[in-house]
Each structure stands twice: as structure tokens, then as C-alpha cells.
Recover the amino acids of this structure.
């Protein structure tokens, strides 16, 4: 019995210490600043991405005590239309870099180094836009439409973009994404089951897509887009590969 008492008393002491320590008031102000902006393509159009793409690296520099302090990277999520917004950021100095997306390296001098990207002072509501050169530009030739049998079809063409000093990646395959929500990435996989093999030589050609089965539901909206996946060219490695470029999203109502 004495053994049990000797065991319980120290355990209780440790427990009380933990409770009182954890109940100390945190008087550090919560983050109240906002960082927002748009990622544009080289044609000054919003860069199309997958929903919630983590393609902006952010590093807070101002809190570090000295040059040897380790600074961890975080990411800012970007919406389908290239916009981003985070309302819980501490005031301070940050380094922001678009990376690991379907575009050529943003910083031609520093690449993916810690010094790459834009130095931004965040205070209150701060807007920081970026312009990237996507690997592909995908344009609609025939916008989505539904025939009398309930099949959805459309067509696109793509342009391979170039940026001086870089090698263009190779194309891999294309997919039709048909969704019943505004999140086009949440596509119904049963409507288009097998991606199309696409080659570099198809640049400028009209590429047709069609659902493999009729649309199940009528009287609702659908959101449609086309994605084309890329892969690293021989001897070259780009961050984020395989990555995909996207068309804009078309909304249609199926009566």
C-alpha cells in the first residue's frame, strides 16, 4: 500500500503542474493581417489551377533573431481562378514565391533558393500579385454542350509557351472534368474514365472530348473544364511535375 501512495503522490504533483502551466494566459495578439492577390499568366489572364493549389511559398523573415535562425516554409492556397487570400497573417516581412505549379520557374536569378521570390511587408490588408508563364495555354474551340442523347462534348486547342532560357516540358495526357459543384476538380470520374494521350505535335490542333456515358442528372448546373498533364523533358526537372494546365471553367445548365 505504501508503494501505491508513493507512486500516486508524485504523479498528482506532475499533473497539477501541467494543469496550472497550461492555464497560463496567452497574451500574444492573434494574427490580424491579410495577404491577398491574383496569380496572372503571361497574357494577363487569371492563371487557372486546381482548387486549393498550394503553389505560393511564404516565409516569415522578421521574427528571426539572427541569420542562423531556421525559418520554415509554409504555403498559401490558390483558388481555381488564380486568386488567393489569407486573413490570419502576422504583421511582418515575408518572402513569397510561386513554385511547383504548371509554369516555368518564377525567379530566373534565384530559382528555388531561400532568397527567391518577392519581399513583401505585410501590414493590415496587403495585396501582392504575381505573373507566371504557364507551360500551356488551353483555349476553347467548341464550348461544352449536351446533345439529344445526354452526352456532353467540347473541344480545345493548346499552345506550348516558351520562356527564354528554359526547355518546354512534354505533354502527357488530357482529361475532361465534369462536376456538379463549382469545384471543377471534384469531377464525376464515371463520365470520362480514360485520359486521352496527347503529344507535343498536336499543338494547334482541335482536340475533342466527350463523356463516355450520358449525364445522369438534369435540371441542374454543371461546371466543365479540360486539363492537360505535363511531364519533365529529358534531362530537365521542374518543381511539381507531373503538373497540369487547365482551361477556364464553363458553367452550363442542363434542362
Amino acid at each position: 500500500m505504501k508503494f501505491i501512495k508513493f507512486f500516486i503522490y508524485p504523479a498528482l504533483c506532475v499533473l497539477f503542474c501541467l494543469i496550472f502551466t497550461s492555464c497560463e494566459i496567452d497574451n500574444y495578439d492573434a494574427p490580424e493581417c491579410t495577404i491577398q492577390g491574383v496569380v496572372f499568366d503571361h497574357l494577363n489572364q487569371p492563371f487557372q489551377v486546381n482548387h486549393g493549389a498550394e503553389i505560393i511559398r511564404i516565409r516569415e523573415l522578421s521574427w528571426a533573431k539572427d541569420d542562423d535562425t531556421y525559418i520554415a516554409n509554409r504555403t498559401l492556397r490558390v483558388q481555381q481562378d488564380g486568386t488567393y487570400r489569407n486573413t490570419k497573417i502576422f504583421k511582418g516581412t515575408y518572402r513569397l514565391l510561386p513554385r511547383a505549379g504548371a509554369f516555368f520557374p518564377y525567379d530566373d536569378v534565384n530559382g528555388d533558393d531561400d532568397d527567391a521570390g518577392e519581399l513583401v511587408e505585410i501590414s493590415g490588408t496587403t495585396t501582392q500579385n504575381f505573373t507566371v508563364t504557364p507551360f500551356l495555354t488551353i483555349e476553347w474551340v467548341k464550348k461544352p454542350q449536351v446533345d439529344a442523347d445526354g452526352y456532353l462534348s467540347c473541344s480545345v486547342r493548346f499552345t506550348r509557351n516558351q520562356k527564354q532560357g528554359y526547355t518546354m516540358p512534354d505533354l502527357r495526357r488530357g482529361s475532361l472534368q465534369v462536376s456538379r459543384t463549382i469545384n471543377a476538380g471534384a469531377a464525376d470520374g464515371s463520365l470520362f474514365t480514360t485520359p486521352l494521350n496527347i503529344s507535343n505535335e498536336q499543338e494547334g490542333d482541335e482536340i475533342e472530348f466527350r463523356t463516355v456515358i450520358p449525364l445522369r442528372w438534369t435540371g441542374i448546373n454543371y461546371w466543365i473544364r479540360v486539363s492537360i498533364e505535363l511531364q519533365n523533358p529529358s534531362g530537365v526537372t521542374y518543381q511539381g511535375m507531373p503538373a497540369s494546365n487547365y482551361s477556364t471553367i464553363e458553367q452550363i445548365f442542363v434542362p
Notes: Helices lie at 2-22. The radius of gyration is 25 Å.
